[in-house]
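Why does residue order matter? Because the sequence determines the fold. Keep that principle in mind as you read this record.
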Amino acid sequence: MSSHVMSITYLPKIPAVLSGECTQTIRRKGKKQICVGDIISFHGWQVRPYRSPWSWRKRVVVTDVYDIDVSRYWLGFAGEPGGYLWNSDLCNKIATEDFIDPPTGEALRDALFGLNGAPKEPAEYQIIRWEPTA
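Structure:
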């Protein structure tokens, strides 16, 4: 079990995370992977990310992790053949659970690429979920 510190900067999502309605985030897979049982301390920023104090904190325990591959055209689950186009029902469902505004796969793609840039090749991400807490 590891501990991680992560910020949430997507404004439509912050109130839902704080209230316990939103229990999911999607992150680019890094060197330190997230695993079930890990503890994440989420936080926001008062003004500019990395240049101001934290504005809030919320600690959660990870319950589910799904490794996914993300391309410009589709999202797919790692190890499974094929993928789902961004306008598919599955991508729309993932966007809804991630409190993307509007809750569509295309808006999810735009949010991910806005934070990380559009990958030239499929990039590894993780869907991370936790139990709701107050």
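The domain at 3-130 is CATH 2.30.130.30 (Archaeosine Trna-guanine Transglycosylase; Chain: A, domain 4).
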